[in-house]
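Q: Structure tokens for this one, please.
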Amino acid sequence: MTWEVLSIIGTIAFAVSGAIIAMEEEYDILGVYILGIVTAFGGGAIRNLLIGVPVSALWEQGMLFQIALLAITAVFLFPNNLLKHWRRWGNFFDAVGLSAFAIQGALYASNMDHPLSAVIVAAVLTGSGGGIIRDLLAGRKPIVLRRSEIYAVWAVMCGAAVGLGITNSAFELYTLFILTTSLRVLSYLYKWRLPNRSIRAQG
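A: Here is the predicted structure, written as tokens:
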């Protein structure tokens, strides 16, 4: 049940996130649907490739595709005056998708008895893969690579928690989901940054 709930939450969140960005870039209706679907399922496709699951497994998720299409349609049909306010929620939906899919990806790899390193990689790729593809298709620098953003770190935290067996019960997984989403929201609200070093010549 936890697996299914996380899948639904992540799919809706990333589908909405992709659709909002497509409309910000003034894509037509087909572009909105394509970017929404790619954002919702891109991370899972990359994860499946790397941990040995056939990519065709994605096509068995008919219900999730329908949910994604309904979510995209709802966003596309929103009145413009309301959509302006929804755009402010783009980062929130992205945070929800990151958390839900990072945990789901980690559970996927853990259930296949992969080592901790593979569980963490699966969490990062599932949580951020769709967003990376979305940003590249929209002509934007991926969030995960921006100096001003702490993004993939939260997916690593999810992978480590699942891989080390810290979170086992449904309650613990939902707590991890809420914690990760909250940390991601706080990180972009307060502009938390990781240490960086520049090698540019000082002029």
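A few notes: The two ends are 58 Å apart (CA to CA). DSSP finds eight helices and no strands in the chain.
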